[in-house]
Predict the 3D structure of the following.
Amino acid sequence: MGILQQVKITEKRDVWKWVNDFNEGYSVKAVRMELAGIQNATRTEQLFVWNSWAPLKVNYLAWRAIEGKIASKIALTNRGCNFENLVCDRCGLYNEDTNHILVGCLWARTTWWHVCRWIDIQFPVAAESAKEILVYMQSQIGSRRWKKIINVAALATIWRLWEARNAMVFDGNFVPVKRIVENIKEDVYVWCTYRSNLKALAWEKWVDFEISELL
């Protein structure tokens, strides 16, 4: 009753309050940020930058990848699935987890090397995870548009490496590195041409990554 007597009735519209929202109106975002703080989960959100020039499914896969939550053999085993072996189907050398599929596998590292050579940046030899690759790409010095194109290339590489893994696991079809790299170049070209406000660039220039007129 003492609490109720302290309430002052006004003609203002009723609003929901969130106790940790600094007296602002209630929002799902406020609750999410509070839970993220409790679970120490804000690190990934600050790290991953959603790129509107890449399809939503590609962004989502990359986000799941840096969380280590894509359906690798190790991840599925932890969820109760059984496999005859946990070895990577493409290289046959190491157990298959998220970072091995996208970075650690011999064929994945070779793909990243070719992509880095194409976009004219140094290959991060020490990188061992998708997270480290994306951080490395985002840390490159250049214009805003150039960095966004570089980020699209990284997302496309993650997407095509995942597709190549699935082709081997489910169809027994080994996609060679050369074909993966060609697909990546095509993906980035199409996405940047039709999902951005950049002017069209001749394919011949794109293959050599001569994009100065786009920047």
Notes: The chain has two domains: 2-39, 48-214. The chain has a mean pLDDT of 88. Residues 146 and 212 are 9 Å apart (CA to CA). The radius of gyration is 23 Å.
